Amino acid sequence: MKETNIEQQLMHEFAEFIETDPVAPDEQLSESILNLVEKDLRPARWKVYSKFTLVEVAAGLATLTICPQFGLAFGQHYEFLDAFQTATPSLAFYLLCGLFFVIFGAALSGLVLSRDEIRIVGNTKYLYFAAYSFLAYFCLVSLGSEALAAGTLTWILGAMLGNVIGFETIIRLRQTAS
Q1: What pLDDT, in 10s, does the model give residues 75-122?
Q2: For residues 35 and 61, what is the distance between their CA atoms, to the nearest angstrom?
Q3: Does 22 reside within a domain?
C-alpha cells in the first residue's frame, strides 16, 4: 500500500515531535492542575451533602403536588388518596407516605451525584438518611395541620427506607451499567 503525501507529512511531524527535547510545565501550572484533580477526586463533604439535600428537598416539594403529607399539599384535594388512606391500615399508610415522600429524591440524588461524591458519602449516608427523615418529618408537621402519634414513627421509618431503597437501587444500577 502506497503512502500518500498527507500520511508522509504526518509521519514527518510525528518524528520531529519525538526528537524534540521534553519541556517541563511550569511548577505553578503543575500545582494548579494537581489541585484541580484533587478537588474533583475529593470534593468537600459539606458541598456533597448540600447538593444531596438540595436534590432531596426539591424532589420532596415536588411530591407534595401529588401526595399531601400531614395536611400540607401544593396540589388539589385527591379523593383517591382519601380512599387509599381509609382502606389502608394507619401504620402501613404512614409507612408508604414516608417512603413515597423521599424515594424520588434519594433516587435522583443517586443520579446527580458523581462517583467521587458518592464515595465521599460512603457509610455516613445512613446517618444522613436518618437525620434527613427526622428533619423532613418535623418540617412537614410544623407546616402542616395533621399529625398522629402512631403515624410519626412509621412515617420516619418509611422515609428512611425510601432513602435507602431509592439511593442504593440507583447506585447499584449505575455500577452495573459501567
Answers
A1: 676 677 778 878 988 888 888 888 988 999 999 999 999 998 998 898
A2: 37
A3: no
Exposure pattern of 44-78 as b/e (b: 16+ CB <10 Å)?
A: eeeebbebbbebbeebbeebbeeebbbeebeeeee
Q: What distance in Å separates the CA atoms of residue 99 and residue 104, rounded to the nearest whole number?
A: 9
Number of domains within the chain: 1
Q: Which structural domain, as residue segments, surrounds residue 53?
A: 43-177
| DSSP label at residue 25 | P
Grid cell locating 30: 503543575
Asked if the structure places residue 126 within a domain, the reply is yes
Quote the CA–CA distance of 101 and 63 in Å, as a whole number: 6
119 is a domain residue:
yes
Domain membership flag for residue 69: yes
Whats the size of the chain, residue-wise?
A: 178
Name residue 72's beta-bridge partners. Answer: 69
Three-state DSSP class for 113?
A: coil
